[in-house]
Structures are given as structure tokens and as C-alpha cells.
Amino acid sequence: MGVSDDDAEPVVVSHENTKSKTFHFLASLAMLVLLPAVSVVYAFANRFTVATIICYFVTAYAAVEAIILRFPDPLGHENKTSRGTAWFLFFVYCGISAIGSLLTGTNIFQRFKSGIKFSESTSHRFLAILFKTLVVIVSLAGWIRICLAPVALLGFCYDDHTGQCIAHGIMGSSFIAYGLVMLLILVVPSLRSPATPRRYAQEFYDSWAIFVWGIVNSLTEHRWGHEWNHGDFQHTSMGLLWIGLGALGIFLTRKGKRSFMPALTLIFTGYSMIQHSQNSVISTKVHAMFGMVLMCAGLTRIIEISFVLKDERSDASGEILSFQYLPAFCMIESGLLFMGATEEQLVLVHQIGADHSSYILTITCAAGMVNFWFLALLEWYLRLQRSSDGSVLINESYATIAGEFELDEISDDEH
């Protein structure tokens, strides 16, 4: 049984300079997460000039943030991980800006382009791949920086709480990333089109990820040589679940067939989270909601694969059906709920007088905004692609594309 929320150790919160801290956080969110995401879109659309200009602005902010700005805790110190992430972002952005300058020829590097078509050279292709890789890495690092900001400001995750914070941060971010990958495959036509050759279905790779992570979880949760406790049994059994269902999913999807096994894994994982007893009432309720949303993600994914698409990669019309957006949204919300379910965070929520329902609704709002932002980025990427090479918009069907392609061939033959 969990203890009363009133018996939990209170969280010390500093109310000094709250306006400046809030502005700093919002500025970092815009400059280190939102703007870099736009840069990623332009980079993958091969619009390196715009992507590089964006990186210039972000580099300038990263320099100010690393050298001057801080996220101090109530004692006036910022934890080393948060500080180190700020410096990492600054140095990597300096490198990205240099690579982008070389790609676009906007400064002294332009002299190296004389006498050759640099855009067609091997060096340019290598730099383009490197640029795209690095902008994705710094976008992820920006996400980590923003997640660490409240942790640093509130002085969370020290001593015995460190392991819990790391586990919730990694697993929560993994659920969010899985939801974003589901949206990516759903929205980008070339990824969901049956005409695009694919040896394996998405569930094959999902099953491998579940299987490998199950092995890691089973071998690392319990400290060998020590007595087993309640938490060891919970997490090790969950790892064994992932190993078993992951292996079955790999077998069922080995010939390119779709499978509901990864979704079934989500359902059982959600069930286990609902049944986990926590140290406080609010923590128990938030974890239960996380489990229910995760079960909803698995259930809706099974319905999508088995009944809506009937084991096909997309609907016969080529259109995205409204129901298909639901599993990804549930995955994103479950990830945010899990990230926000650490003991110290929930003690603070209770301490300020909020209840679990208000907290869950706030996180649901955040899930909607994350979902909206990623879909907007994907839509903008498709528009950039269409304007550059004639690829299709999000709402065009494959039948229409095929028909237009055949008409173009007939017209060419007649001429």
C-alpha cells in the first residue's frame, strides 16, 4: 500500500526570479527544440541554405546559453549534466554551422568550389549526410536539454532519485520517439506506399527492439548477488515479457507479414503499470493512467493492423484514415505521462494543491501540442519536396499518382 501524499518529503521550491527563469526556459524551448526541428526539415528537403541560416541563429543562442545563462536550483547551482549538455550543444552547433557554410558556399569556403561542380562531388554528398546526421543529433540533444531544465531548476534527481529519473526519462522518451516514428511512417507516402519495396514490415523492427530491450532490462534491473525485492520482480518480469513476445513477433514477421505482437506487448506492459503499487496515492493514479493510455495504444494499433488495414501497409485508397492517428497520439501521451511520473515531480504537484486529474489533463495538452508540431513539420517537409522534385502532398492517393504517371508516359510517346 502507498503512503499518504501528506507524509511525503516536501520539495523545496525557490520563488526567486521566476519571470526570468520562465523566459529562459521558453526561449530555450524555441531556440533549442522548435527551431532546430525546422532546420531538420529543410536539411532533409536538401534546402541547406535555409537550414544553415537557422543553425547560425541557434549557434548564437547556444553560445549565450552555455557561457552566461543558467538553470540554477534552489541552492543556486546547476547540475553537471544540464551544464554539460549546454556546452555540447554549443560545440556541435559550431561544427554544423561550419559544415553548412561549406555546403552552401556562403563564406571563405566558397573558394574551394572553383573549377568543379561542387554540388555533384563526393565531398558534397558526404557533407550533406554529415549535416543531416548532426542536425538530428542536436535536435535530440536539445530535447534532453529542455527536459533537464526543470530538473535542474527544482533540484530534482539527486542521490537515491537519480536512477528513477534516468529510467523514466529514457523510457518515456522512447515511447514518444516510437509514436513519432509511427507518425512518420503514416504520413510520408513513400514509407507507407505498398508500391515501395520493403523486405520486412515495421513490426519486424519493432519486435527486434522489444526483444533486445527485454534482454537488457532482465539482466540489469536486479543487482546480482543481492536479495530480490518487489521492484526487481516487477521490472525483471516485464523484461521477460518483452523477450518472449519480441521473439514471437520476430518469427511472425520474418516474411514481411504484419503482426499485432508489438501492440500486444504494449497492452501487457500497460497492465503491469496499472497494477504497480507506488509510494503515494497521486503516483499510483498517474501510473495507472499511464498504463491505461499505453493499453489503449496497443489496442488501437491491433485494430488498425488487423481490422482497418487488414494486414496491409496502407488503405487501398492510399488515404490516411482518421483512426490511424490515434495509436501514435496514445504512444506520445503515454511517454509524457511516464516522464512526468517521478516521485519528486508528483510530490510537488500535490504540494502546490493540484490533483492527479489536473496534472494528467495538462500532460494530455502537451501530448496534443507535440503531436501537432510533428505533423506540421511532416506536412511542411512534403510541401518542400513537392516544390523541389514534384513529389506528392500528404492527401494524394497512390491511385491518382499512378494514373498521372501513366498519362505522362502516353503523352511522351505521342510526341
From TrEMBL:
InterPro entries: YTP1_C. Pfam families: Ytp1. The chain crosses the membrane at residues 23-44, 51-72, 84-105, 126-146, 166-188, 236-253, 260-276, 288-309, 321-339, 359-378. Residues 142-381 form the Protein YTP1-like C-terminal domain. Keywords: Membrane, Transmembrane, Transmembrane helix. PANTHER family: INTEGRAL MEMBRANE PROTEIN (AFU_ORTHOLOGUE AFUA_6G12730)-RELATED, PROTEIN YTP1. This is Protein YTP1-like C-terminal domain-containing protein. It comes from Babjeviella inositovora NRRL Y-12698.
